[in-house]
Backbone:
């Protein structure tokens, strides 16, 4: 089987206003137990390997198997952390051991009158058979933000 070698790029920005303090939403990212409570929590996934090292240069891993389906693996490196202001990561995704993408993602925490404005911006490069996966990544991130919202409520 020959794999067609190609690249595609995708970028998106998602903004949500959460009725909680910056400290509250920050802790949902910076505290391992809190992140475990919402990150990738989904009835469709059986959790696998997990690693959490929240510091510049630290690495996170989140792996899980979709029921009767493929294994998804996320590996991130924190490249910039400014407490209560922003987190920047580079991360790679694999599906059943095949490298599907590399992304740079930033999340920003801005105070507003009723809580915190959260902005997620991502720039991704998708490889070979996953070249058209950008819209799925955005939808997956929307799902993560819904899960975060439920957790913060």
Residues:
């Amino acid at each position: 089987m020959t794999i067609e070698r190609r690249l595609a790029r995708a970028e998106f920005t998602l903004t949500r206003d959460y009725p909680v303090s910056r400290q509250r939403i920050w802790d949902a990212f910076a505290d391992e137990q809190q992140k475990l409570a919402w990150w990738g929590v989904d009835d469709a996934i059986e959790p696998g390997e997990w690693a959490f090292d929240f510091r510049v240069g630290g690495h996170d891993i989140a792996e899980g198997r979709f029921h009767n389906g493929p294994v998804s693996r996320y590996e991130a490196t924190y490249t910039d952390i400014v407490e209560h202001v922003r987190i920047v990561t580079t991360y790679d995704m694999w599906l059943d051991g095949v490298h599907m993408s590399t992304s740079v993602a930033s999340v920003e925490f801005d105070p507003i009158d009723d809580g915190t404005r959260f902005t997620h911006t991502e720039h991704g490069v998708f490889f070979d058979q996953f070249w058209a996966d950008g819209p799925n990544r955005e939808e997956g991130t929307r799902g993560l933000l819904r899960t975060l919202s439920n957790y913060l409520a």
About this structure: Residues 7-152 form a domain with the Alpha-D-Glucose-1,6-Bisphosphate; Chain A, domain 4 fold (CATH 3.30.530.20). The CA atoms of residues 44 and 68 lie 9 Å apart. The mean pLDDT is 90. Helices lie at 22-30, 32-38, 134-152.
